[in-house]
Amino acid sequence: MNASRWFLREPSAEAAARLFCLPYSGCGASMYRKWPRFVGDTEIVPVQLPGRENRFREPSYTTYEELADDLVEVLRPYLDRPFGLFGHCGSALPGYETAVRLKERGYPAPARLFVSSQVAPHKGPHGRFLRMTDEELAEEVRTLIVELGGTPRPDLVELSLEILRADVETNKRYHPAEPVRLDCPVTALGWDEDVEVDHRLMDTWAECGDTTFRVLHGPHYRFMEAPDDLLDAFVADMAG
To answer: Which of 47, 56, 99, 148 is 20 to 30 Å from 163 by CA-CA measure?
Structure first.
């Protein structure tokens, strides 16, 4: 498996630790372009998934389980130092599933799994996106493109809608009956102005492992700006 396709840049050999970041639903790894390369001595490593951006011609995964099966093998050579996993909303779930697969295969465990704006896996699927029509999702795509600093051209909206619809359908399929309790600690990040996932719905992540709960300021999309309180949480909890 060609690991280079999975990263916008090769992870640095100089990093003391790595945080692998999965893209938000409907997006590719470039959504992390506003984030710094390093947070403290931890390198931010955006993960590029099939079916988007430079991997658009590749088929998207249809289940998080299939994605995790392949992702752990891609990441394995880079797990030679402390590392974490981060996902927001829909991408928090394949982040969790990847941590599960690492445990099942006896691979190194993350120093921390960061899940943002998402209910625990056995309490989903959750969110209004799951009930939206293509027209409603297209409006969300326009908002997302603007949040990312782009212009919502019709061709870009159409392309992003296709990716988002595939991600939504994958989310719908994911509903483990019982959570696997992880060996690694979890940080559950809620947002006090988030109308998509009320941070109070995230308490059942405690059933997935030793969990630290943090409520950060802002709405659903604020994480894209790499706000200081989010970066501070990474530094504190990766070291913790």
So the answer is: 99
| H/E segment holding residue 49 | none
pLDDT of residue 144: 79
Report the sign of the C-alpha dihedral through residues 161, 68, 210, 85, in that order. Answer: negative
CATH of 3-124+178-239, one of 3.40.1050.10, 3.40.718.10, 3.40.50.720, 3.40.50.1820: 3.40.50.1820
Q: Is residue 3 over pLDDT 80?
A: no
- Radius of gyration for the chain, computed over Cα atoms and rounded to the nearest angstrom: 16
The phi, psi pair for 43, rounded to 5°, reads -85, 135
With beta carbons less than 8 A apart as the criterion, state whether 67 and 94 touch. Answer: yes
Identify the H or E element spanning 43. strand 42-46
| Statement: residue 1 has pLDDT above 70 | no
Give this prediction's pTM: 0.94
Which CA distances in Å does 149 have to 62, 90, 92, 154, 168? 29, 21, 23, 16, 23
Partnered with residue 17 across adjacent β-strands are 42
Boundaries of every domain in the chain: 3-124+178-239
Residue 131 makes CB contacts below 8 A (sequence gap 6+) with none
